Amino acid sequence: MEFIVSAEEAGQRLDRFLVSQLPALSRSRIQSLIDEGRVQAGGVARKASHHVVPDEAVTVEIPAARPPGVQAEAIPMEVLYEDEDVAVINKPPGMVVHPGAGAEGGTIVAALLHRFGGVEGLSAVGGPLRPGIVHRLDKGTSGALVIARTDAAHKKLVEEFRERRIQKTYVALLHGKIQGESGSVTLPVARDLRRRTRMTARRREGREARTDWRARLRLDGFTLIEADLRTGRTHQIRVHFSTLGYPVVGDTLYGAPRQERIGTTLLPPLGRNFLHAARVAFAHPRTARRIEVRAPLPRELADYLAELGRATKTDPALIDAALREFL
Fold first, then answer.
1. Would the pTM count as exceeding 0.90?
2. What is the secondary structure of 199-237 as a DSSP string?
3. For the domain that residue 45 is a member of, what is the CATH number?
């Protein structure tokens, strides 16, 4: 688009001139176009503070809007189970499941679109930004993630999650010596009103949440647990145990240190949360056949636990026994 500056308009800042010429665009959109070098005055890309002059030609390049949806990306992804209705993938840590604030590319959805041949290979119930997505795992959490490949399967799986008939088992390493060999945490979970990136179990109006747990290994100052989610609230395991004083190792958002010090030994940073979705079990949405899928514990978590065991002088045989069914 091209505009010629009149004598009456001369002297205005470039951004204000464009606001008057392009009322359909917001000020922030116009600023973005200028920052991207898509606005020229007198044949030269200018800053917003440029003052236009009489008879100056101002050209604006407005790129076509991107169609809604996610672009497929050739991101390696381990598929643990697959048929024409559902799939279960092994989500790596550090990836968000679908696009959101601050995360447009490199998502699980982008990898799924590439792996399953575009939107035709995934359910559309979740909309163009979440094809196939029935539930989520936190960015720092790895493990089994159930994917719907048809709309019928998606609706059935959502019902199964809502009725709490899908079994989800996690492995987590906690700070501290949690009391007892097993138990349940039933604290409600709600958004933290002071820090919006966090959840909290200290608000009465929180949503019902229940985490069942069993101790699998005790080290000096740490407890490895197996946890079953009976509800699926955001950050549920992390906020439940941090509220009790046992934050997940590596989870700096909920109070864990970035690095562990055992006596005089400073362990290297884990770089992620020690939280892994190790197993998921559900009735197949079409055949009702029971499907149980296991995601092996990532090598970095097993190695970290071995390193922690050496620092705490824990018998390696105890660590091997605790991890045997998760490797």
1. no
2. EES--TTPBP--EEEEEEEEETTEEEEEEEESS--TTHH
3. 3.10.290.10
